[in-house]
Amino acid sequence: MGPIHFMWMLLLSGSLCVHVVRGVPIGTSSVNCAEGSDLTLGPVDEEYEGEVEVFNEIPVGNTVRLVAYAFPDHINFLELVYTPGSTNAIVRTKMALDADLLPQTGGQLWYSVMCVNSELENKQKLILTDLNDKAPIFEQKVYTKRISEIQAVNTEVIRVKAVDSDISININRITYRILDPAPADFEVRNDGAVLLKRPLNYNIAQNYKFTVEARDNGDLFDTADVLLEITDFDNLNPYFNHSLYQATIQEDQTGPFVTIQPEAIKAQDGDTGINVAIVYSISSVSPSKYLSNFNIDANSGVMSVVTGLDREEIPTVTVNIKASQQDDSLKTADALVSVTIEDVNDNAPEFDKASYSVTLLENSQIDTPVFRVTVTDLDKGGFVGTLWILPETVPFSILLDGTVIVKSSADLDRETVENFVFQIEARENDPPNHVVLADVNVTLLDENDNSPQFKSSRYEGKVFKNQTVGMLVTQVEAADLDAGVNGQVKYSIEFGNLEGYFSIDESTGEIKLEKNIPLEENKVLQFPLYVAARDGGGISRSSTVLVEILAPGDSKPKFLLSTYRGSIEEETDPGAVIVKVTFLAVTTVVPVTLQVLTDADKFAIDSKGIFTSKVKLDYEAQSNYSVQISISDGTSSDEATIVVLVIDINDNSPVFGASSVKHPVPEDTELGANLTAMTATDADDGFNRELRYALRGGEGKFAIDPKMGMVSLSGALDRETKAEFSLEVVAQDQGRPALSATATLLIQVSDVNDNVPSFSKTEYEVEVLETESVGTTLVTLEAVDLDEGTNGVVTYSVFQQDPPSTVAFFQLDSSTGELRLAQALDYGAVKVYNLMVQAADGGTPSLVGNGSVVVRVKDVNNNPPQFSAERYDVAVSENLASGAAVVTLEVTDEDEGGFSNGHFIFTSDTFNINKQGVVSLKSDVTLDRETKDNYVLQVVAVDKDGLNATAQLNITVLDYNDNTPQFPTLPDPIPFPEGEYSDKSPGEVYHILATDSDLGSNGEVTISICHTISLQGGWDATGCGSSGSGDQ
C-alpha cells in the first residue's frame, strides 16, 4: 500500500455505553447549578407519602429552593427540606400523591429545584402509577325522557354518561349495561347510547324503568335509573269491548234497555293515551222495518226502544251499531246487538168447560181416572202453572195433564157421602199469576158392598117344661146399608137344627118351637143355631149370628172325676190357671157353689170349675200339693181331689266364687298352656243348673273350656304391644230362658327381655366446625327398648371409629346418649368420622342394637393461602409477544375448596395476572430492555375471607438485538495534524466513539473505514477496512 493510502488510515477506537434507570419511589440526584438538568423519576404508586428525591452535591456557596415547573399547582404536593449551606436537600410529600389530579401531564408530577445563585433549574418529572381508586360516576342519578310509541327501531332513545376520575385509560375505560330485569325493548352501547330494539306499543306499556350500570376495568361501578314515558300516537281505530251484545226486552216495552249482556255497550279509542271521544250510531236493523223502533245515545251508547214491539209478530231483532272517533269519522268500529222480545203474561188460562158433573162407582180403587180437564193459555208456551183441587179434603187429586184421579178409595162410600162437590183451580206460575176455577160434582153409584149386620152379636132363648109347639123362642134382626134390592134382607137357619125343633120367619126373623124337646135331669140341653141374613144383590152378601137355645132339666150337682191333676211353674204370678174341674149341674136354673177345702190360702176355684193359684209357689220349698174341693147347690153336694205338681223353673243365676280375679302371665308363655280356672255354681236343678262357660274380650288370645271353665292361652303375648287384657268370663245355665253370671279376669302380662334396643335413626348425621370446643355436645342419640324395668334400661357406647385414632376424638355418655367432642378437630387432617355405636339393655342376657353416626368436620377458613415460593425469578426476552404468559404462580390453601375462590392483588402497568395465577404481558404493552430491564412486583393472594400471602416476582428482561449502532456527529471535514503516517508508524487522527444500546455481542460495535477509487472506464470502486477488535 502506497503512502497516500496510509494517509487515509486512522487509528480508531469503538466503545459501548449502557445506562439503566430503575423506577423506584425514592430517587437520588445531583444538583447541577452550572447547566441545570431535566430528569424523570419513578414510577411510584399514587397515594404515596414520604421522601420523593434526595439531592446531593449542592455546590458550596449555592442555595436551592423548590419552584414550580410549568404547572404551579403541582408543588402543592411537595416541600423541600433544606438547610442553607448544606450540600444535601430532600424533596418529600406534603400530602398523598394523586395522579388523578394531574390530568395535564398524564399523571406526572412536575417540579423543579432551582439554584438561587444561577437561577438554573433542575427539572424533575415524577411518574405516578394510577390506581383504580375512583369509581365511575353518572352525571345524573335519574335520566328521564318522553318518547313516542312510533320511535324507530335501532335509533337512540336517550344517552347516559358516567365519568371515571382515574387518569389511566386502562383503568377509566367504562362499559355500560342494563341490569336485570332488563327489558328486551332496549339495549345500551358502551358510549352510553340507549337504543330501541323493538317497536313500542303505548297500549301495552306506558312507562319503562330500568337501571343502567357503568363499570370500569377494575370492577368499580355506579348505577343510574332511566325513566321513559311513552306517548301515544293516534294510529288505531276505536273498538267495542265485545263484538256481540245480547239484550232482552218485553213486548210493548219502551225506554232504555234494562239489561244487556255481557256488559253495557261501550267503545273506546284504540289509542288509550289519546282516547278521543266516541260517537255511537245505528247502522242498520234486521228486519229493516223495525229501524225506527230503536235509538242509541250518540254519547253514552245507551240503547232504547222508541216504539214497543209485539212478540207474536217478531221474536228477535238484530241491530248493527257503529262507534266513530269524534275527530275522524273514518275511524270506526262495528258490533251487533241481538234483541230478544219476551212474552208478557197478559192472558188468563181457560178450562174447556165452566163446570163438570160426573158419576163414579163407590169403592173405586186409588188412581182410578175420574175425568180429565183441559186448560189453555193464549200466552207463549200455553198454560204453565199448577192445578189444585179445592178443598184438598175431598178424596180426589189432579195430575199435571188435568186428569182427576181417586186419592182415597176408603172415602168413596155412598152410604156415608152420596156425592162430592168441589172446585179445580188453575193458577199460573208467572206474575200476575192468573187464577181460574171450575166447579165439579161427582155422584157415587151404589154397589153391593155392605153385608147385612145383626143388631146383636149373640141371641139367646130358653125352653122350659111348660113348652108348647109354635111358641116364640126369640127373634133376630139385621139391617143392610145398601140401596134397593142390595139392602133387602131375608133370614134362614143354616145349621144346628138337625132334629127340627125350631123354625124361622125369613122376613121377620122370629124363631118358633116346631116340636117339643125331651128334657134330661141335672142337665141343660143346648141348641146352638146359626142364623144367616142375606141381601138381594146380584152377588148376594150375608152374615151369620149364633142363637143359643137352652133347655134345662132337674138339678143334682156332682164332679165327673174323683181326682184331677194339674201343674204350675214355680214363681208364676197369682191367678194362673192350673186345671179346669168338670161337673154336672143345672147352673142356669139352680146356681152351685165350688170351694177349696184344703190349702185355701194358696189355691182358689170359681163357679165354672177354674182352679187357680193365689200366691207364687216355690219349687225349692214344696214340689207338689193334694187339694180337696167341693160342689153344692145347697141341697146336694160332692167332693174331689186336685193333685198339683210344682214345676221347677230356672230362677237362680250361676254364682262365681269371686267377681274379679287378677292373674299374671309371662309374655313368653307357650300357646295352649292352662292359665287359671274360673268356676261358678247354680242352685237350680237339672238342666237349669248345668253350666257352660264363655269368654268375652282378649283379642282372640285366650280360650276357655266350656264345661270346666279352665282359661288357656291361644295367641302369642307381647307385653310391649299390650300389657293387660281384661276378660269377661260368662257362666250360663241351660235353663229356658238361660241365666248367666259374669266375672272379670285381668290377665297381667309380665315382661321378658325380648326386645333389642332400637336407635331412633339408623344413621345420625352431624356437622361440626373444626374450631368447636372440646366437650361440646354434638348430638344426643336416643335408643328405645320396649321392655320394662332393667330389661328396658339402655347403655350407650362407641365400639368403632373410622378413621381410628390412638385417643378417641368423641365421647358418648353411656346414660344420656350425648355424643361430645373429646379432641380438637382438624379439617385438613380428617373431614369425616364414621362412628359405630351400640345400645345395650340391662336384661340377662343383654340385647344390643347397633347404629352409626357420621360426623362431618366443617372447614373454618383459618389457613392463609401459600405461594409455592416466596420469590419468583423469571427471565423473558424483550421481544416477548404482547399478551404472552410469563409465569404461573402456584397458590395452595389448606382450607376447604383450596384457593379456587381466591383472587390476586397485583399492580403493574406492564403485566396482568388472572385468577389462575398466570402472569402475562398486557396485550397493549411491549418490553424494551433498553428502557427498563427489570421489574420487581409484589403479588398478594387473598382468599374469600381476606386471609392473604405475598410473594415477590422479579422479571428480568433479556436483551434482543433490536438497536442499531449510533455514531456521534462528526466534523466535516475531519481535521488532523500534519505528519507522516505509514503502516509502520500509524498515528491517531480523530477518536470516533460509536455506541449500541444492546448488551453483549449485540452491543459490540465494529467500525470500518471505506474509501472510493475511480477506475478506468468511468467506474468507481469502494473498499472498506475494519478493525477486528472494534478499536480502530
From TrEMBL:
Keywords: Calcium, Cell adhesion, Glycoprotein, Membrane, Repeat, Signal, Transmembrane, Transmembrane helix. PROSITE patterns: CADHERIN_1, CADHERIN_2. It is a single-pass membrane protein. SMART domains: CA. Residues 139-240, 241-351, 352-454, 455-559, 560-656, 665-759, 760-867, 868-967 form the Cadherin domain. It is found in: Membrane. The keyword Iron-sulfur does not apply. GO terms for cellular component: plasma membrane. InterPro entries: Cadherin-like_dom, Cadherin-like_sf, Cadherin_CS. Residues 1-23 form the signal peptide. Coiled coil: none annotated. It comes from the Eukaryota. The keyword Signal applies. One of its GO terms (biological process) is homophilic cell adhesion via plasma membrane adhesion molecules. This is Cadherin domain-containing protein. It comes from Hucho hucho.
